[in-house]
């Protein structure tokens, strides 16, 4: 019973205290109205002065290796003759790792160092980014060093530092890569920027760079095998063609051989044996080369671009009504809290 009395007294005190605060704030209604008006004005001013941002969106579907039925038939055919053309590319790039590849410094930096045409002028993307963000000069007012350096020359410490800052800002503030549906293979790339042309160009370039790097990395081993087999096949084919030419030359040099002297036929027979051996080697090499090409085709992922950003891009601007509401609400709440704190401090001091 005593516990209930204490609880009722506590709740009553709380209700009385809330009513007391309400009455006090009600007595200061003019100040709260003024704060709300100022907040609404600030919100409207922010929405009016805020520069629009442009949103470039692209989507693509990723079909990884090992998912094609026709290639599986070739793999089964190869296994029947004792050959294994692989079970698909593994390695570090599997599943959702391509999303992380978009956020990597290597891909973003490669895209920033690409040259694009803006309004009839060729310009590095990083220079365009620095220009419209007001970062062309350092804090001392000196222009940043040029990023167009020879291929065999490395960037300076200042250039690397500036590039790292730009990459970090783009990765955290501008670029967003995600799967709209976790069960789907469709990936959405979204880039937001104050510069409409930069947003579109950067999105196009980074999709191309990541796709090329992804495919190259997935097929690197198979591509190397195909290249080696192709060189060996071409070499043996040239040797076989030389053997055929030598046999014909030997026959032409001795059109009526003396059957009593078998030694005269030895050079021609040797070339014939070499030709037969090279022919057998060439048959095996061609077979292995074609199977390696099938393996390369099997491991090559298919990246099908579904949507690309098209000008004019979607313009993202803050809503005036929402900014006015938020500005007014926040300033009224801050004013009310300030008034209550001041009143509480006065009561404690008094």
From TrEMBL:
GO terms for molecular function: protein tyrosine kinase activity. The keyword Ribosomal protein does not apply. One of its GO terms (cellular component) is plasma membrane. InterPro entries: Bact_polysacc_biosynth/exp. The keyword Phosphoprotein does not apply. The chain crosses the membrane at residues 29-49, 321-341. It comes from the Bacteria. Keywords: Membrane, Transmembrane, Transmembrane helix. This is Chain length determinant protein. It comes from Pedobacter quisquiliarum.
């Amino acid at each position: 019973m005593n516990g209930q009395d204490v609880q009722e007294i506590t709740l009553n005190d709380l209700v009385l205290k809330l009513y007391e605060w309400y009455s006090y704030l009600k007595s200061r209604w003019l100040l709260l109205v003024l704060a709300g008006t100022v907040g609404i004005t600030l919100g409207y001013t922010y929405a009016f002065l805020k520069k629009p941002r442009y949103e470039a969106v692209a989507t693509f579907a990723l079909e990884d290796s090992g998912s094609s039925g026709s290639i599986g038939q070739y793999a089964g055919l190869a296994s029947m003759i004792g050959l294994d053309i692989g079970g698909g590319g593994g390695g570090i790039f599997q599943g959702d790792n391509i999303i992380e590849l978009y956020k990597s410094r290597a891909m973003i930096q490669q895209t920033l160092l690409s040259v694009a045409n803006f309004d009839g002028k060729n310009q590095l993307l990083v220079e365009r980014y620095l220009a419209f963000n007001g970062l062309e000069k350092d804090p001392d007012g000196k222009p940043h060093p040029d990023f167009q350096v020879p291929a065999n020359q490395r960037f300076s410490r200042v250039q690397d530092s500036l590039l790292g800052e730009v990459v970090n800002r783009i990765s955290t503030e501008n670029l967003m890569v995600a799967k709209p549906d976790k069960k789907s293979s469709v990936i959405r790339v979204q880039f937001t920027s104050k510069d409409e042309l930069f947003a579109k160009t950067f999105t196009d370039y980074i999709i191309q760079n990541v796709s090329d790097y992804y495919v190259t990395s997935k097929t690197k081993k198979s591509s190397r095998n195909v290249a080696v087999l192709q060189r060996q096949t071409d070499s043996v084919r040239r040797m076989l063609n030389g053997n055929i030419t030598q046999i014909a030359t030997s026959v032409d040099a001795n059109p009526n051989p003396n059957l009593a002297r078998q030694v005269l036929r030895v050079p021609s027979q040797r070339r014939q044996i070499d030709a037969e051996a090279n022919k057998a080697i060439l048959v095996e090499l061609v077979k292995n080369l074609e199977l390696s090409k099938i393996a390369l085709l099997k491991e090559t992922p298919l990246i099908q671009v579904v949507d690309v950003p098209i000008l004019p891009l979607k313009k993202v601007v803050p809503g005036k009504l929402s900014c006015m509401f938020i500005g007014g609400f926040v300033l009224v709440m801050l004013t009310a809290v300030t008034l209550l704190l001041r009143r509480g401090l006065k009561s404690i001091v008094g």
